[in-house]
User: What shape does this take?
Amino acid sequence: MANPEDRPPEATRLRTLLSRAVTTTPDTPPRGGSLVWYHLLALVKMAWRVLQRIGLGFSSLPLLLRVPVARRLVTSLLVPSARKFTEKHEWISVENGIGTVGINNFAQEALGDVVYCSLPEIGTKLSKHDEFGALESVKAASELYSPLSGEVTECNDALADNPGLVNKSCYQDGWLIKITVDNPAELDELMNEDAYEKYIKSIED
Assistant: This one.
């Protein structure tokens, strides 16, 4: 259940007004009172009771109202950039100046079950298109090429014991290396997802 302190002021005020309308609206119009206001409150009361009866009530308010603005802003800053793709079927996603590199779904399906991953040492300096390792499967082997120029800062150690992660989760747990982005302009030379899909269709035809 959400902590009441996490609700923004507008959501708390709305709930208070609705609750007050439900508990204070009389069953008959007050003498000398506004008939328009009475009928409006009666309508709110009826709608509120219907929502509660079908299990909605306050929880049916739009999610945006119940999430603090500050939390939404912080979350948006943590979202990594969209993946970019190479003609060799590697992908890269950049966050805070560090690019995470892997192979995409097309490549892992073509390879089959990966049984061994050869990855570079941390600190290895790469230029765009440099070979940085290889993947071996039960039916083939494939070299790996760097999408950008940079220095290797991390390798996915989990692949040593479980190379099949490349097949099971090529965009998440099966990533290969992380590198610095020495020349951000090189990102513009890579394909976005739509362009890559068109590229795949062109080589399959």
Remarks:
- The beta strands are 84-85, 90-95, 98-103, 114-118, 125-126, 131-137, 141-145, 150-155, 177-180.
- The CA atoms of residues 65 and 78 lie 21 Å apart.
- The radius of gyration is 28 Å.
- Residues 56-80 have pLDDT under 50 and may be disordered.
